[in-house]
Structure formats: structure tokens, C-alpha cells
Specification:
It is built from eight helices and four strands; from the N terminus they run ααβααββααααβ. The chain is mainly alpha-helical. The two termini are 21 Å apart.
């Protein structure tokens, strides 16, 4: 729960600090501008709110690790992926996107702090505890923070502790540990296919390089 709050607060703060002109820059999500990714974060925040008020009374079917599935890389044919840029463009000025993310995102953050970690909730046809659900989202927030700043060198990076937590989660999800020589940031970027490893990194990765990327869905 603590890492959820830290990663989400850091991500929203970074969005708030991005100059309006940079909303037209590309993000680390293929085909999406920064404004498109911020629009996606608004939807993510809504999903958190919806899930936290969707109680379940059956046994958990997944936990923070098994909530994520390894899937094929996106093809760009998902209707929602195509809808996001149109929604983002409809906001017009970046300030309205910032306002909406701050409004809904703050509510999602407060709801997470008030929720009982042991309570069970339902989402994506699965049941899990609130604690596991929020822990799973640390990976989402951290990866999208890296996506947000992919072409914005002046923007703040995710907190070191949430980078480490996201890396640990990715290793559990993939069932593979990244070499200690790779930083947490590089392990996340290379591990999820957000950038290709250099020749030197391939040598460090060894046989693991052939298994990449680990795409979460």
C-alpha cells in the first residue's frame, strides 16, 4: 500500500510539472503522445476507484503477482488503444487533462489509503485482496512513469524504492531474475521491451535475452 501511494503520487506530480508544449511529445508507449498516456492514466484512476468499491465475498483467485499475465506485444489493433488519442485530443488544452488527472487521481489515492488491505474486491473477472490489487498497480504506475518521461530528460524519474519494487514484481511475474549488473530502471525497460538491450547488456543477460520481452496484460 505504501509503494502504491509513493508511485502514484510521484507519477501525478511529474504530470503536473510537465510543460504544456511537452504534451505533444512522444511517450514510451508506441503510437501515443504524452497527452495520450495522461488520458490513459485518467482511465486507470477510474478503474482503481471502481475496483475499490466492487466488493467480493469469494476466495481470491489471484494475488499481486498472478494478477498480471504475460501476453503478446500489442499490435495496435485494440479499439481502446485507438480511442485514447481521440479522447486525449478532445481535452484541447493540456491544463484540462492535468486537472482531470489531479481530480480523479487524488480521489483514487485517497480511496486506496482508506481501503482495508484485507478486504476482497473483484476486477477483470478475478478476486483479490485490496492489498494485492494495490501492490499490483505499483508495476503499472512505475512503468507508465518511465513511459511518460521517455523523451523528457528534464522530467523527474520514479522514486528509487518503487523502481526496485516494480523490478522485484516483474521478476516474480516472469519467473526470472535480471542480472544484478542491470539497474532497476534498465531491467524494467529492457525486460518489458521498452528498449532493446545493447550488445554489452545482451552479454550480461545471457540466455535470458532470448526470452524477452515480458509484456504484461
Amino acid at each position: 500500500m505504501e509503494f502504491f501511494s509513493r508511485s502514484w503520487t510521484a507519477l501525478r506530480t511529474t504530470v503536473a510539472d510537465i510543460p504544456d508544449a511537452d504534451f505533444a511529445m512522444p511517450s514510451g508507449c508506441s503510437g501515443w503522445l504524452v497527452r495520450d498516456l495522461v488520458c490513459h492514466l485518467v482511465i486507470d484512476a477510474q478503474d482503481v476507484l471502481i475496483t475499490l468499491v466492487t466488493p467480493a465475498d469469494t476466495e481470491p483467485t489471484v494475488d499481486a503477482v498472478t494478477y498480471w499475465k504475460l501476453v503478446e506485444p500489442p499490435t495496435g489493433e485494440d479499439p481502446l488503444d485507438a480511442l485514447i488519442p481521440r479522447l486525449a485530443a478532445a481535452y484541447g488544452e493540456p491544463r484540462w487533462l492535468k486537472f482531470h488527472l489531479d481530480d480523479v487521481g487524488s480521489a483514487a489515492g485517497r480511496a486506496a489509503e482508506l481501503a482495508d488491505p484485507a478486504a476482497r474486491v473483484g476486477t477483470r473477472d478475478e478476486v483479490l485482496t485490496v492489498g494485492d490489487y494495490l501492490s499490483a498497480y505499483v508495476v503499472e504506475w512505475t512503468l507508465h512513469h518511465l513511459d511518460l518521461i521517455a523523451h523528457l530528460p528534464a522530467a523527474a524519474e520514479p522514486p528509487a524504492e518503487t523502481l526496485a519494487a516494480a523490478r522485484a514484481s516483474l521478476e516474480k511475474i516472469a519467473g526470472a531474475a535480471f542480472p544484478a549488473a542491470l539497474s532497476d530502471k534498465d531491467a524494467l525497460l529492457i525486460g518489458t521491451g521498452r528498449r532493446a538491450p545493447t550488445d554489452a547488456e545482451k552479454a550480461v543477460l545471457g540466455d535470458l535475452a532470448a526470452e524477452l520481452p515480458f509484456v504484461l496484460g
